[in-house]
Specification:
two-stranded antiparallel ribbon, 13 helices, peptidase activity, 2-enoyl-CoA Hydratase, Chain A, domain 1, alpha/beta, globular, S49 family peptidase, eight-stranded mixed β-sheet
Length: 345
Amino acid sequence: MKRESVLFQAARKHHLNLLFPLFRANTSASYPVSRFISRPITVLSKGFAKGFFCIKKETVDKIQQFFFDKWAIEERRYHQLLSILLPGLKNGNLASVEQYLGAKRIEAYAAVPYVADRWELDDASLPQGAVVVLTCEGVLYSWETYRLERYISAAMANDRISGVVLFVNGPGGMITRVDVLEKLIRQSPKPIVAYITGVCASAHFWFVSACARRFVSSPMDEIGSCGVVYTFQSFKEYYAQMGIEIEDIYPDSADLKNRAYRDKEEKQDDTLIKENLSFYHHLFAQTIARNLGVKYDAQDPLFRGQTFFADTALAKGYVDAYGSLEDAILWVSAQKTVKRANKMI
């Protein structure tokens, strides 16, 4: 009990800065450029210190991922998320944070063409040839990406399901496992198509590029955002204002630890940071080039972070056709017939 009391007092006194070391730099990209970031928690307060000991471990994990994971997201959407979450963290209203991060954003149901009914994926009455519709709306979190993987894998294993339609309206999100999701879609034995309505940018663009067909719903739809930028933040002044003196001490045997950040902080040298960003950008760009069937050209706006309205994206071959959700479902359903016909020829 005494040990816990000391811990609690430390948390209250220093707003958890002694318990949760901050990542003192972050990478980011302003939309229409992809955002790869590791965000620091700069507003944890006494209220959070009190509430922290009462929340679920799962919520703590999600909070840590939210601030420390890498992202590919629209700039304004990330700041909107901060405006939603930070007041709750600061004031100790962690129930609202828990509710927000715990909300299920990926919805799944099965449908068949020309029928209004919907089925659960594990419904015993699921009709033969059903098409799974997975909604991918809003910010993509890593735990939602994993949920998408599970839904797709379940659809591939179900003989009654002919394929999947991804209903996409997303500005991007955490990039953890997005490459895994992209590979799962690309190598799927059943057709997976995307129905884009609104925006398909950054992390969403990454995995949607692997779809067998990409439908857009309106000329106002936006597609693209492949690129990276780094936002450097120094927290020396922040710690000083809180009365905390920070000195990092490294053993001689770990001289490369945090080298990129230290070079920028101490020498104003961003060489290593750019090298790391180039790795992410290269992986993203090469994936887009392969999936869209275009040659990688470093001067092409497609690979430099630009977004395109639907007409331009269609003309350049980044999407395939205008259509409705029903059109996407019909296209998936028809592929089994097309495949059977091709075998007969």
